[in-house]
Amino acid sequence: MRLFRLLAVPLAWAAPSVAFRPPPSFPAGILSRAPADHASSTRLRALAPIDDVATLASSTLPLAPTLPSTALLEGAMSSALSSSIDVAAGILTSDNIKVAFSVATFFPQLPWLFLILLPNAGVTKKLLGGYEVVTLCCLVHFFIVAASVAQPDGTAPMAEFADVFDPSGDPQKAMVGMMQYPNFVSEEWSHVLTWDLFVGRWIWLDGLRRGILTSHSVLLCNLIGPPGLLLHWLTSIVTGKGLPGNEAAALEESDD
Q: Are 189 and 101 in contact (CB under 8 A)?
């Protein structure tokens, strides 16, 4: 016991020097060198003072990607909107309204020929049995309306247009005055031609359903519109087919 106490004193005295003294084989100056691998860097970072942690992290770790700023997004959206407006302005022009006017005038004439000259042909039934041709005419009319609205003067002054429906004034004179505006003429002309074709197609379909000659009625409908429908009614009566019944009531009966 006394021997243990005698040995403990010199060991305790020598302990500090043993704890901090590098081994003889440890190269001199190695402690001042920077670590080469990530593990060494992590150990040094853990030993660094708290104030230097942020500096070390920013110098060794990649930064997270930053999102575009609000100003940048607004600029991109504004640029895209401006480009879209420029494209629309280049399409919705007066020159293109003139082109659409010609399309609205001449495109329906080919379907009319089929309806008048070849009412029972398979090509006519395939071409006009659906609504594709009429829908194309409607789209042409819609383009004229949209392009006219995009013009500085629009289709026509609304005040003058309102005079057409003013019973206390002179509606006919107001309508004549509206004809001085090219965009209004283009809109009205394509409007009339589209609905004439729609009605002429209906006359042809009714003739197919009930076995009635329709070429003369369809031709008149193409020329002056509503009188062609009247001629079809007259033809139906003369041939003993009569007028079409109440289609809504027929649908209700079929449902029952």
A: yes
Single-letter residue type at 196: D
CB contact set of 179 (below 8 Å; sequence gap of 6+): 185
At position 9, the amino acid (one-letter code) is V
| Tokens encoding 65 | 């990607």
Contact partners, residue 210, CB within 8 Å, separation at least 6: 236, 241, 244
Contact between residue 218 and residue 203 where contact means Cβ atoms under 8 Å apart = yes
41-61 residue pLDDT tens: 444 444 445 455 455 445 554
Q: Which among 195, 86, 194, 94 has a CA at the least distance from the CA of 144?
A: 94
Distance CA 30, CA 35 (A): 10
Locate tokens 């002179």: which residue? 170
Share of the chain above pLDDT 90, in %: 54
Q: What is the pLDDT of residues 153-183, one digit of tens each?
A: 777 888 888 999 999 999 999 999 999 999 9
One-letter amino acid of 141 = H
Classify residue 25 by burial, with Cβ atoms within 10 Å: 0-12, 13-18, 19+. Answer: exposed
Angle between helix 215-224 and 182-210 (nearest 10): 170
Which residue did the predictor score with more confidence, 39 or 106?
Answer: 106
CA neighbor of 34 nearest in space, from 44, 21, 23: 44
